[in-house]
């Protein structure tokens, strides 16, 4: 299986899945646009996550919080002070590189690596190849900062969110008060996040603007380990359910030195991508974050006067100490049955929509020899496929285009279908194979005799005759696999 990244990138561009952002101006580094097929694909990935995480469950509700949030959110979450990569600059070519990447220890935190310049003294610049020409390690902040407010007196620095999770914590109280949820329950959200990444990676794997699908699942302390196990399995199986080969997936426990100080446990769901040093790369993290976030936000809420007094300068704000009865604070939960108040623990599955879209593309990509020719195809699960069925009249006469249009109209209410009457039928099939369309419906002369058309299966290329009135039922049955 030749699932090389270059093949995927070229297919994506050729067929309108993914383009470089601002390409007509030479492109903007590590930003990408999803074209006609890509936007459908990514929406299906998003919908599949939402269906499994929210729609199919009684205990999870959705949220869509704003990208810009009060700066204090980032003080409480720790991002304002700690969300930085340790980097170095090559004295020869001035390219900056993450130290963990130079050391080939992706994911290691600055405090684990240490800032001793000797650790990189013999390393090679990945850009120009110079050896040992690095500056001392320095912290590079990853949050994008911007200004908000038109008047000088209400103007302040705000940040593009680097994760969607904090919007959930900030709305925990609102959701508790406005719905009938009770712990254990979760709040899910999908949305854009932004990080001024130092080293950007292959294609849409690591970009500066990306989409996350995050769930914060609130549970009673003491039940957190069970829920952690539950969500680990559930999230791993989601990738398998939507077609990713199990052999290309694994769960990797974080080493104790990799674990964030507040997390009790964390695993990464990893996919074997066709690039990078070790190939296995993170798709998603599942963490037991304990009651850290809600407690920190309680501290932040009490520290608002410090924010005002500091002149709205996060660097100068000190969070007030936690009160001894913090567990009764505004972000606590009252268990009616047990007559107990506590701050819930949180299990957080945090996935990247773009990264999983890339994994679905890579895993679905296939090449095979058919009658001496190479057939490129994307073996997408039907729910993920951008187009579910393509409808072709065999020829542009004898009423076939009209019948084909009628079929399109009848199927369109349920699925994204595509009409194509141009070119040889074999070429039309190949184009749909490359788009990952699971079914091609061809209207030929026989429709006049018995009302049937052919349905071709993308993977086996086998064709069946189906009555045109039974197409919806046929596709419904085939797609609910
Ligand atoms: P990495 O170590 O790869 O930088 P991370 O551990 O910082 O990732 P998290 O903060 O755990 O990532 O974010 C959760 C998920 O969001 C990741 O598993 C990934 O799928 C996605 N993600 C994070 N950063 C990016 C990015 N720059 N581009 C695309 N997706 C991203």
Automatic annotation (TrEMBL):
Organism: Sedimentisphaera cyanobacteriorum
EC number: 6.1.1.14
PANTHER family noted in UniProt: DNA POLYMERASE SUBUNIT GAMMA-2, MITOCHONDRIAL, GLYCYL-TRNA SYNTHETASE/DNA POLYMERASE SUBUNIT GAMMA-2
Enzyme superclass (EC): ligase
Domain of life: Bacteria
Family: Belongs to the class-II aminoacyl-tRNA synthetase family.
Residues binding ATP: 195-197, 205-210, 282-283, 352-355
Subunit structure: Homodimer.
Compartment(s): Cytoplasm
Residue ranges of every copy of the Aminoacyl-transfer RNA synthetases class-II family profile domain listed in the record: 7-382
Designated name of the protein: Glycine--tRNA ligase
GO molecular function: ATP binding; bis(5'-nucleosyl)-tetraphosphatase (asymmetrical) activity; glycine-tRNA ligase activity
Main location: cytoplasm
